[in-house]
Each structure stands twice: as structure tokens, then as C-alpha cells.
Amino acid sequence: MTEDEVLRRAFSMPLTSPAFPPGPYRFVDREYLILTYRTDPQAIERILPAPLVAPEPIVKYEFINMPDSTGFGHYCESGQVIPVKFGGEHGGYVHSMYLNDHPPIAGGRELWGFPKKLGEPTLKVNKDTLVGTLHYSDVRVAIGSMGFKHAPLEHESVLSSLAEPNFLLKIIPHVDGSPRICELVRYNMTEITVKGGWSGPGALELFAHALAPVADLPVREIVSAVHIIADLTLPFGTVVHDYLA
Q1: Does domain 22-242 bear CATH number 2.60.40.10?
Q2: Which residues of 82-109 are buried (b: 16+ CB within 10 A; e: fewer)?
Q3: β-strands 166-173, 116-118: how paired?
């Protein structure tokens, strides 16, 4: 294999059998349980990277089921998003994500810098309740619930929430362990088709864990609970701040 051939094929590792297919990626019937809650301001200050700013001590805890995703098939994820401002732009900082499948973990980390780790999230309907759980190995670290489809949400409000920009801290180390890439990345979901959105009573409990520290952003008050089903596309991102420049 020549050097030019290496460069042409250098999309992901391993070179001759990449861990994930080229994007962008389309998701069909993507299902969300999003529990928005108030936390301690000091807790957000400890983990939110500048130049992002959190206008309020608010966190969105998400359980997401993806039954039909380009190249990845079916997998689930769970994690925390913090509403932030970047300059005059409002969006969300993706703080933590736990997935039960390796290809989307590898693709998310390598391409955008999603903070993905291996976990065991679930999202399912339990009689009259939508229930999300997250286990790290066999230890439960989160459980969220919501009354199933109690009240419909306005289509436009759901669409605008899914179209908001999100921010990621992408870190790729050099071979000596120092940072080779340290960037703030922005991405927006596109080609969004909202198939349903509902609100209802919600509850969320987080449990302390050394390697899955979701409870470091403690729940002080539930603000809202929503259930969304949509089709959407995850395109490539853009670099908006380079910490090494």
C-alpha cells in the first residue's frame, strides 16, 4: 500500500477495517426521554469548560433509544447536556454520554469529540410509565421516569429544541501523552422530522459512582419531563475554538 493510498483510506482505525462507516448518519424513530433539572451552580462551574457559560444551573438528563441508525444499527445512550451560551449563541454542552455499542462510541469520539464511554442504558415503556435506566457494568447509576404521553407538546417547540446547536470538547492526545487536539466543536442536527412530543410528570435519581460520575451534578428540582420521537441527521461538526492556538 502506497502513502497516497494510506491517506485516501485514512478515515478511521483500523485502516483496513474501520470501526465505523463514513458519515453523515441518519436516525429513524430516535426516541428521547429528557428530564430537565436544577442543580448546584458550583457543580456546573467545576466541570464546564470556558469560554462556554451556563446562564442557569440547569442540566438535561437524556435517555435515548436509536432503533435504526446508519451503519450502527440499534443502540441506546444516556447522559447529561448543560444549556450554555457561546458568545451570543444559545445551545447545549454535551457533558457525558454512556452507550452500549462500540462503533458509535468510536465514531462519536474520533469525529466530533463526543464524551462517550461504555455503559448499559435502556429506555422502555413499563405499563403507564416511560422508564430510562443507566448501569455502569452491573451497577445502576441513574433511573428516570415519566408518565407516558400525558400531554402533547407543540410541534414547533420540539423542532426548535432538536435544531439547537450543541458543543463538545474534543481531546486527542499526542503519542507522548500531551494534547495533540484540544478543540471546542459545534454541531447541529439537520433534516429533522418530528413524529411526536409529549410532556408529563417526571422523576430522576442519580447514584454516586467513581467512573460514571453523573451524580456530580446532583438533582435539586425537576423542571420538566419530555418524550420525543423524531427522524434526524447528524452531520459533521465545525471547530469554534482551538485551545492550542
Answers
A1: no
A2: bbbebeeeebbbbbbbbbbbebbbbbbb
A3: unpaired
pTM of the model: 0.96
Q: What is the pLDDT of residue 48?
A: 98
The answer to whether 116 is a known catalytic residue is: yes
Interior/surface letters 208-244, b for 16+ CB within 10 angstroms, e for the rest: ebeebebebbebeebeebbbbbbebbbeebeeebeee
Length of the chain: 245
* Per-residue confidence (pLDDT) for residue 62, from 0 to 100: 98
Q: Name the residue with cell 462507516.
A: 21
Give the residue ranges of the chain where pLDDT is below 50: none
Which residue in 60, 85, 116, 170 is the catalytic one?
Answer: 116
Domain boundaries, the chain: 22-242
Closest CA relative to residue 189, chosen from 236, 238, 239: 236
Nearest Cα residue to 43 out of 105, 85, 96: 96
- SS3 annotation, the chain: CCHHHHHHHCCCCCCCCCCCCCCCEEEEEEEEEEEEEECCHHHHHHHCCCCCECCCCEEEEEEEEEEEECCCEEEEEEEEEEEEEECCEEEEEEEEEEECCHHHHHHHHHHHCCCEEECEEEEEEECCEEEEEEEECCEEEEEEEEECCCEECCHHHHHHHHHCCEEEEEEEECCCCCEEEEEEEEECCEEEEEEEEEECCEEEEECCCCCCCHHHCCCCEEEEEEEEEEEEEECCCEEEEECCC
Adjacent-strand bridge partners of 118: 99
